[in-house]
Amino acid sequence: MPPLRIGMLGLGTVGAGTWRVLTRNQRDIVARSGRPMEIVAVAVRDLERARRIVGGAVALTTDPFDLVNRADIDVVVEVMGGTTLARELVLQAIANGKHVVTANKALLAEHGAEIFAAAEARGVIVAYEAAVAVSIPIIKALREGLVANRIAWVAGIVNGTSNFILTEMGSKGIGYANALKDAQDQGFAEADPRFDVEGTDAAHKLCLLAANAFGTQVPFAEVHTEGITELEAVDLACAEALGYRIKLLGVARRHDHSVEVRVHPALLRSDHLLAGVDGSMNAVMVHGDASGTTLYYGAGAGSEQTASAVIADLVDVARSAACDPSERVPHRAFQSHAMADLPLRPMADTTSAWYLRIICSATPTAERALLRTLARFGLQARIYGRYAQPDHSAHHVVLTQPVAYAALRRALVSLEQLPAVQGKVRAVRVETLE
Amino acid sequence: MPPLRIGMLGLGTVGAGTWRVLTRNQRDIVARSGRPMEIVAVAVRDLERARRIVGGAVALTTDPFDLVNRADIDVVVEVMGGTTLARELVLQAIANGKHVVTANKALLAEHGAEIFAAAEARGVIVAYEAAVAVSIPIIKALREGLVANRIAWVAGIVNGTSNFILTEMGSKGIGYANALKDAQDQGFAEADPRFDVEGTDAAHKLCLLAANAFGTQVPFAEVHTEGITELEAVDLACAEALGYRIKLLGVARRHDHSVEVRVHPALLRSDHLLAGVDGSMNAVMVHGDASGTTLYYGAGAGSEQTASAVIADLVDVARSAACDPSERVPHRAFQSHAMADLPLRPMADTTSAWYLRIICSATPTAERALLRTLARFGLQARIYGRYAQPDHSAHHVVLTQPVAYAALRRALVSLEQLPAVQGKVRAVRVETLE
Q1: Of A56, A425, B35, B386, which has the fewest beta carbons less than 10 angstroms from its beta carbon?
Q2: Which ipTM did the prediction report?
Q3: Has the keyword Lipid metabolism been applied to this entry (chains A, B) (predicted)?
Q4: Is there a single domain that holds both residue A146 and residue A215?
Q5: Is A343 contained in some domain?
Q6: Is the same domain home to B191 and B239?
Q7: From the CA of A310, how many Å to the nearest CA of chain B?
Q8: What are phi and psi of A39, to 5 degrees?
């Protein structure tokens, strides 16, 4: 078979990793796929650096449009990132009849509908296994492995940076700022970490998971997203004392006429499999009506870890390029005509149990007032721990029964108005995911 | 597209589950696959029972050869089990140009080479996702998701019955016989449980995993297989006290000129993800050179859980039936001409750390003799616990550094000859799997 001819946009961490793995494992990859792969051309900013990586046999250009317009490539690998130029280039590649493999979750979460529609109209493939939990073949599991199932929910830890920071906070008892600095020092967080620690990156990935799980468009801009920046060491310690761990979770759930899609920190019981996912690792759980719960675990970032997924996509492209498009796996698991456009469930209507940490006078009267206030909003709750402060107040740790978010918010307002309560109440969801 | 026409051999737990899921989720499955599926005919022993399950529209026969010879089916689903009649029927179906989907690990572990060769010669697909860790798409992950990797090892908990029994023994502190009875009462073990508890079933599955991971034939009959029948409650308790759990593991490792494939109980650190896989659940870990370690978790048995995998295979067959065979995913991950025939590494040469439980006089002299005997065979070891017995002896729990199995066995013979040592030494491997 003739080689699959690849043009690559970008030669950063992921691009260089893809080059390295393709070169190192070429023999095994051909033994598996039956078809050689050749990186024909690469578009980069720094030609000299690129030349040192790929040697002399690969065409280099600083003009990415030049690359996507080349006649001698079958597939464009987009590993440059960003959503503006990358969008234009991907659409141009599609218009030129090239297949596309991308690791760009932001691009697909924000412009997926447009890009997939263009690809279908042109009869080409846009593959994106590397965009979610890199080395874990979770897109393939959702689209193919679990194809028989009506999927009730998908949830997971899909941002390695946040998980690394929370693991540091929990294991070392340090605060967010120190843990972030550790993460930055060790290369697990960017200098500007907002994209990761505020939940945006996790929300991008969750949108792709939810679309594939439920066969519906998921409007990224409307997804409820909370990050980890307001968690304190005391919260992780209180959770631990009660038998929980705090993780940044993405949770997507199918309802009859809506989908619930949310990213936020949450308490999970310490013996829950997701609670044992530490450091920069990722894991995704999927609940199907026939399969029951399955879980997928692996690296959430890294050069060769991402390359593993990029190359898996390239092999899939090589295999199905010649197929009739109707026989290919659809871009978002469901045939495009069967994709729904379910609304997002308003957050006010979503239900969770809650962990509350309330700084309050440690007197029976004050505590009765706390619980009475919660009860007034329908929150069945119990005080599980009191951690004394020097000034005779205490952190009161309360766990509630599941309650609608709207009720919880109203209860918080009232709680914070109680004379015995100091400052803001810290509220974190408790998830069971069973 | 015309429906994929299915003939089914067997309508037991898995067959009935497949019928139920296909019927219940038909709309979603078609929305995903783009192609309807129709069970045209079923071969069963009990026609009346079958008629109650599938209703009037499906042809029923008691002659399974009649089924595989029907002209109006595209694919045969073999869910009858066994290796003699099932082998003949699968080969006949292949000879008739039918694709085959099977959940039969024994059949493929023992006759896979013959069956896959016949399928390739005839240009048909034999799919078997349901044969390993049913609902978990692990065959797909190995063959497709991790296609870029040179896989160093694959290991896991792939027998739900044994895992259920070990979980019961550990959590309730009961012995093997009582735990087995619990498992039988709750439907997690057969009346004759040998196939599961002696490791045979796990070895079947591990052979399939190893073949797909390494691209080599794995001769099932030569695989080292130990079951869980000799473990005692005291071993699980001692392991727990040292921070370990005992699991029945399958471990397959690639060496330069051989493969190591073995099934046996093993200690895993309690914080290892596999140690948290409880009850009848399964999990498989794979270490690839690019991906790093990934893990796949889910149900190891069950009617609809198995059906989930059978139907995923049916959709794959529907998609790639029209493709040129060279574009299909190879049966064992590697193109057949690229499959190796590596020898199994002799067990004597395999290396593990060991847990030893030695009943021995609890005197300094006796303990010195123990450690001296171990040292004589190159075993660096430490006594980690002493659990007194009524007669002044004690269970001595020893952990060793990694050592070749041959040396361990010689050391055990000498240990058991020491005057202070009573009876047999219990020896269980300690695995790190990192």
Answers
A1: A56
A2: 0.96
A3: no
A4: yes
A5: no
A6: yes
A7: 9
A8: -80, 110
